[in-house]
Design a protein that fits this description.
Number of helices: 2
Structural class: alpha+beta
Order of helices and strands: HHEEEE
Helix content: 40-55%
Distance between the termini: 91 Å
Strand content: 15-25%
Largest sheet: 4 strands, antiparallel
Number of domains: 1
Shape: rod-shaped
């Protein structure tokens, strides 16, 4: 039995361009899957850091409030030092995000701290919101869009900490 070789020396003369066509058909799909995976991974990475930033803000609020009250338990948040404590908590959360994320994340974080004056359970609440550009540069379906065009929003749930 003799093998017939084509002009290019291939055993499969009729299938010379099949690999190139298969690559051309599958490459866009694989690229979309890879970019989507990068975007979702980056979104969750920002989310973990934003939650940790909220924790840092709460810890700063509790520490500042106890320091302002000479270490005694604080019965409620309606004291004279509350605005300073809220500002310290917000600044601590934003500083954590700016320090632990890459340089492109600076300026995308806002933190909102409030004091719940429920007499039975005085608590601090903090929300960290990050409006950031996605890793691939395009907002993907399924990621929450920001009010700023071309960005994605991550907003932490309320993080509450009792003061006493």
């Amino acid at each position: 039995m003799r093998l017939r070789l084509g002009r290019s020396g291939s055993k499969r003369f009729g299938e010379r361009g099949a690999a190139a066509i298969e690559l051309a058909l599958t490459l866009p799909i694989v690229a979309l899957i890879v970019l989507g995976t990068l975007d979702y991974g980056y979104f969750f990475y920002v989310g973990v850091n934003a939650t940790e930033a909220a924790r840092m803000g709460i810890m700063q609020a509790v520490t500042s409030a106890k320091t302002a009250n000479a270490g005694a338990p604080i019965p409620n948040c309606a004291n004279a030092n509350t605005p300073n404590v809220i500002t310290a908590a917000q600044n601590a959360a934003v500083a954590y995000m700016n320090a632990n994320m890459n340089a492109t994340m600076a300026g995308y974080t806002t933190a909102t701290a409030t004091c719940v004056t429920n007499p039975a359970n005085p608590s601090w609440q903090i929300i960290v919101q990050v409006d950031f550009p996605p890793a691939s540069g395009h907002v993907r379906a399924g990621l929450p869009p920001s009010a700023i065009a071309g960005r994605v929003r991550y907003r932490t749930p309320y993080l509450i900490r009792r003061l006493n």
